Structures are given as C-alpha cells and as structure tokens.
C-alpha cells in the first residue's frame, strides 16, 4: 500500500488551498467517505457548513479532511486532524483521488474483440473483451469496454470512455407509412461523431444520423441506460443522466443538465446552461439558463405555483 506524505497532497492542490488547520505532517494511504474512514491515514472531504460540518469532522476517523472555510474550524485545531480549507471540497478531493489513488487505465486490444479491417484505431487505446467495431475511427487514449458495439461511420475522439454493453451507431427509429398504411424504412446513411473527453455509461444507445451525423460534443457525460436518437446534438460539457430519452433531431446546448428519466421530444432546442428536472416531459424549446420541471415541463417557479394551487384545491397542507 502506497504511503503519501500530507505535504505532497498539499503541494498537488497548490493555489486551491486557502489555509490548513492542524498538523501538516503524516502520511495517507487511501481515500474514503467521511463516514467510512477507518483510521487517520484516510483522506476525506466535507461539503457541509457550520455546526453540521464541525460535527461531521469531529466524528470522522479520517486524518485529513478537505472542507470549506468556516470560523468553527478553528475550534477543531487541536483535534489531531489536518483540515485543508479549499473553495470546493468535492472538486479538490476528486482531483487528489485521481492524482494519488487511481491506477493507470487499461491499454491494448483484447484478443476476443472483433474489429473491421478498415477501422482506423490509434495504437494507444483499450478495446475490451467481445467488443465489436465496424469501419470507425478511434482516437488516442480512448477506452472501449467489454461488449460495446460500434457501427461503421462512427468517429470517436481522444480520451473517450465507453462502458460495457453500449451501442453506438445503430439505425434510428425512422419510418414512413406508404399508401397501404405499411411502414417503409427511412434508410440511415449518416454516422455518429463523439468528440474528445466524452464519457458514456453502460447499456446506452446512441443512434446514427439519418442523412447527417448524431454529435456528442467535447466533454459531454452520458449516463447508463440513456437513449440518444438520430440527428441529436449534445452540447459541450452537458450531462444526460440515467433513463433519459432524447428524441430525434433535438439539440441540447452547452453546460446543460438533463436529470434522470427526463423525456425530450423530437425536434426541439434546449439552450445553454439549462437544467431539466427529474422525469420532466419536455415538449417545446427551452431558452438559455432556464430551469424546467414537470409533465409537461414548465419553468420551475411556475411549476411550484401550480403544485401549491393544486394542494390548496385538494385541501392538502
């Protein structure tokens, strides 16, 4: 088990550290949640404030706690713990975990992977067991886990992670009824573009475009069990969470947040920095910076007034 000097961790944080309360000597061996830390060689973080923070820090067995600035921290100066005051405890913590306690990612191509002879794959990648790749492009540092299927006409950038069981580039759901009322398929000739630093969870589906491409922009994060339909554009550093469904040709802006089980109908536009609430049903465009919730989705303040009025009508306190 590696032993890391507390001073080394402080040096890695650099300007993120506002001040340090308590000792700066000692070693760390692992990271843990504030409640699961078992000894003083554990590092943890606390995002609470005031008496809640002081009580949590006092109770934990961790020797190093990253926390927000608070006058009550001075009362813990002689607790035997090292309190590292930073602006964003969770952010600083995850950076330290990545730097100190994370093993290097896997590299190489598993012998059971099936790869088209015309695929263009950077040598510095990982392709896991039973993954299947068509005529696609895979950029440097990308990790493709087991049983992922990537269809032809897919282009994947650098440092992308795609988790097990995900399907990239299957046909979207496009049909037209003919004169006899029968379905005729809209042949899909487009592809999928996944830009750099994207992460896609397990058992998610990203459909190919019909004529153009379905696009996942730089830094987007897509959770497990999400459906991204054909021709969708997911903006830069946008998050789409588990069980969400994004209908065909919908465009989501940058830095948006789509909560679990949200349903976005086809052909709408979601602005930058939008938050879509849990299980919201979005049927129309949403402007930049809006927060919407409910079914159908509406601005959060309007939704809250509606719920309050319904409670009054029903006599619910």
Helix-residue proportion: 10-25%
pLDDT under 50 segments (min length 5)? none
Largest sheet: 11 strands, mixed
Overall pLDDT confidence: 96
Fill in the CATH topology of the largest domain. Answer: UDP N-Acetylglucosamine Acyltransferase, domain 1
Rg over C-alpha atoms, rounded to the nearest angstrom: 24 Å
Q: How many helical stretches? A: 4
- How much of the residues is beta strand, in percent? 25-35%
CATH top level class name of the largest domain: Mainly Beta
* Name given to the CATH architecture of the largest domain: 3 Solenoid
What spatial form do the alpha-carbon principal axes imply?
Answer: flat
Name the CATH homologous superfamily of the largest domain. Hexapeptide repeat proteins
Category from helices, strands and their pairing? alpha/beta
N- and C-termini, Cα separation = 56 Å
Enumerate the strands of the largest sheet in spatial order, edge to edge or round the barrel. Answer: 8-11-14-17-22-25-28-31-34-36-37
Number of domains: 2
For the secondary structure, the number of strands is 37
């Amino acid at each position: 088990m590696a032993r890391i000097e507390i001073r080394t961790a402080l040096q890695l944080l650099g300007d993120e550290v506002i001040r340090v309360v308590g000792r700066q000597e000692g070693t760390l061996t692992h990271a843990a949640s504030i409640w699961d830390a078992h000894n003083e060689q554990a590092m943890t973080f606390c995002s609470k404030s005031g008496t809640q923070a002081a009580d949590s820090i006092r109770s934990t067995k961790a020797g190093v706690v990253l926390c927000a600035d608070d006058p009550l921290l001075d009362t813990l100066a002689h607790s035997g713990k090292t309190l590292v005051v930073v602006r964003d405890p969770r952010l600083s913590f995850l950076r330290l975990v990545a730097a100190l306690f994370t093993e290097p990612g896997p590299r190489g191509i598993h012998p059971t992977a099936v790869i088209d002879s015309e695929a263009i794959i950077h040598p510095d990648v990982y392709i896991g067991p039973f993954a299947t790749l068509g005529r696609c492009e895979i950029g440097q540092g990308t990790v493709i886990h087991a049983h992922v299927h990537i269809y032809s006409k897919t282009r994947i950038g650098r440092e992308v992670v795609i988790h097990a069981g995900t399907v990239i580039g299957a046909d979207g759901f496009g049909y037209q009824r003919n004169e006899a009322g029968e379905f005729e398929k809209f042949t899909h000739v487009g592809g999928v573009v996944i830009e750099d630093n994207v992460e896609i969870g397990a058992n998610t589906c990203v459909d190919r475009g019909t004529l153009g491409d379905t696009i996942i922009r730089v830094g987007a994060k897509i959770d497990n069990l999400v459906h991204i339909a054909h021709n969708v554009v997911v903006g830069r550093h946008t998050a789409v969470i588990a069980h969400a469904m994004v209908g065909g040709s919908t465009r989501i802006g940058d830095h948006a947040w789509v909560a679990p089980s949200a349903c976005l109908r086809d052909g709408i536009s979601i602005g930058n920095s939008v938050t879509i609430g849990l299980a919201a049903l979005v049927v129309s465009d949403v402007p930049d910076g809006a927060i919407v919730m409910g079914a159908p989705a509406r601005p959060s303040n309007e939704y809250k007034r509606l719920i309050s009025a319904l409670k009054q009508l029903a006599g619910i306190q």
